[in-house]
């Protein structure tokens, strides 16, 4: 066995913690300790009035802050708005993950753009196919953020990652090299929609890229997606990678196949790697559940609990942050929660 169950280390969460906005859906909050010693989150948000699916065309990256890692976090500002016509990230910014190397903050994110069609579904299709991973840098956690004219990682024609690059999961090493796990597919969005009419379909896989410095260039090195040829060659997304005790660890979401592989669909698994390139499931493999225990003794099983991000303190995970989707009588709740992790 590689280590005790990561799931068993998750502690009860505070119901009044995390990050929510009254008029916005908040998704995928990534934490870091700022130069002020406070806890900062970078998250995706878009108007509730637009609906859950509007992340493709309306998402932007916002910044929030708290005096404690559990929160509650208070909104500060829009960190990365869509840049407008002519930019690769001109229509939306999404799925931020915040890191630091030396005195520079590294804010990785997914950006996209589309030309405006009369049919909003066409906008969403184009925006999905144009998703790319970008990087913004700053000397302060409060910005201003310098963005670049091009994404840091492009799809590769004819490969398994030929359509998109998204959901960056970087691990910045002490020497400045970056291991980047990313999500991609070789199925364009229009075909994905048609295939979903025939039954459940995602077609999402994870791969690995490396860079000698945080600003790149990033080079994809996965000729096949991770776990190809094993029972773990299934739909997955939302990785988070860190290095600890000479190994790399990754938490990621697994879709319906999770019911067979970890006992729960839509939950998270833990994977381990010695070199960052070849990965195997941990033993035991379940990393987190869609069911969360609260400090008041109750528990909630969420419709979706995903986009895991990790607060590392002294190189060790101390808190997990999740986007949650909870059905309610009046519609739904979409915000972020914080789950402490025992040593």
Question: What is the strand and helix layout of this fold?
Answer:
Layout: E1 24-33, E2 39-47, H1 55-58, E3 60-66, E4 74-80, E5 92-101, E6 104-112, H2 120-129, E7 132-138, E8 146-147, E9 166-172, E10 178-184, H3 189-196, E11 205-211, E12 218-220, E13 236-244, E14 247-254, H4 258-261, E15 268-273, E16 280-288, E17 291-293, E18 299-301, E19 304-313, E20 316-328, E21 331-340
Antiparallel strand pairs: 1-2, 2-3, 3-4, 5-6, 6-7, 7-8, 9-10, 10-11, 11-12, 13-14, 14-15, 15-16, 17-18, 19-20, 20-21
Report on the structure:
The protein has 343 residues and is mainly β. The protein has a single domain (7-340), classed as 5 Propeller (Tachylectin-2, Chain A), CATH 2.115.10.20. The chain is built from four helices and 21 strands.
In a few lines, what is going on in this structure?
With 343 residues, the protein is mainly beta. The chain has helices at residues 55-58, 120-129, 189-196, 258-261; strands at residues 24-33, 39-47, 60-66, 74-80, 92-101, 104-112, 132-138, 146-147, 166-172, 178-184, 205-211, 218-220, 236-244, 247-254, 268-273, 280-288, 291-293, 299-301, 304-313, 316-328, 331-340. 8% of the residues lie in helices and 45% in strands.
Question: Judging from the principal axes of the Cα atoms, what is the shape?
Answer: globular
The CATH homologous superfamily is named: Glycosyl hydrolase domain, family 43
SSE string: EEHEEEEHEEEEHEEEEHEEEEEEE
The CATH topology turns out to be Tachylectin-2, Chain A
Termini gap:
18 Å
Spatial arrangement of strands, main beta sheet: 1-2-3-4
Mean pLDDT: 95
Q: How many distinct beta strands? A: 21
Uncertain segments of ≥5 residues (pLDDT<50)?
A: none
Q: Helix/strand-derived class?
A: mainly beta
Strand content: over 45%
Number of domains: 1
How is the biggest beta sheet arranged?
4 strands, antiparallel
Percent helix among the residues? under 10%
Q: Assign the CATH class.
A: Mainly Beta
- What is the correct CATH architecture? 5 Propeller
Number of helices: 4
Rounded to an integer, what's the Rg over CA atoms? 19 Å
């Amino acid at each position: 066995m590689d280590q005790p169950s990561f799931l068993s280390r998750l502690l009860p969460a505070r119901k009044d913690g995390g990050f929510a906005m009254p008029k916005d859906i908040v998704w995928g909050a990534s934490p870091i300790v700022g130069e002020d010693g406070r806890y900062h989150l970078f998250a995706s948000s878009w108007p509730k009035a637009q609906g859950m699916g509007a992340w493709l065309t309306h998402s932007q990256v916002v910044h929030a802050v708290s005096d404690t890692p559990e929160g509650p976090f208070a909104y500060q500002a829009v960190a990365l708005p869509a840049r407008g016509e002519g930019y690769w990230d001109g229509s939306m910014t999404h799925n931020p993950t915040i890191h630091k190397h030396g005195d520079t903050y590294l804010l990785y994110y997914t950006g996209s753009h589309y030309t405006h069609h009369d049919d909003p579904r066409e906008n969403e299709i184009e925006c999905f196919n144009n998703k790319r991973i970008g990087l913004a840098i700053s000397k302060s956690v409060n910005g201003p953020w310098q963005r670049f004219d091009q994404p840091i990682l492009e799809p590769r024609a004819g490969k398994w990652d030929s359509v998109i690059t998204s959901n960056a999961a970087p691990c910045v090493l002490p020497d400045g090299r970056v291991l980047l796990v990313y999500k991609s597919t070789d199925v364009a969005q229009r075909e994905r929609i048609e295939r979903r009419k025939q039954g459940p379909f995602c077609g999402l896989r994870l791969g690995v890229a490396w860079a000698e410095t945080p600003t790149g260039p990033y080079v994809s090195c996965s000729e096949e997606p991770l776990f190809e040829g094993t029972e773990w060659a299934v739909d997955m997304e939302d990785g988070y990678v860190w290095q600890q005790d000479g190994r790399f660890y990754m938490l990621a979401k697994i879709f319906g196949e999770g019911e067979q592989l970890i006992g729960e669909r839509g939950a998270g698994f833990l994977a381990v790697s010695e070199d960052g390139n070849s990965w195997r499931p941990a033993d035991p493999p379940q990393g987190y559940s869609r069911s969360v225990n609260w400090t008041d003794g109750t528990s909630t099983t969420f419709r979706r609990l995903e986009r895991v991000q990790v607060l590392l303190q002294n190189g060790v995970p101390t808190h997990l942050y999740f986007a949650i989707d909870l059905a309610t009588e009046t519609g739904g709740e979409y915000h972020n929660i914080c789950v402490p992790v025992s040593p």
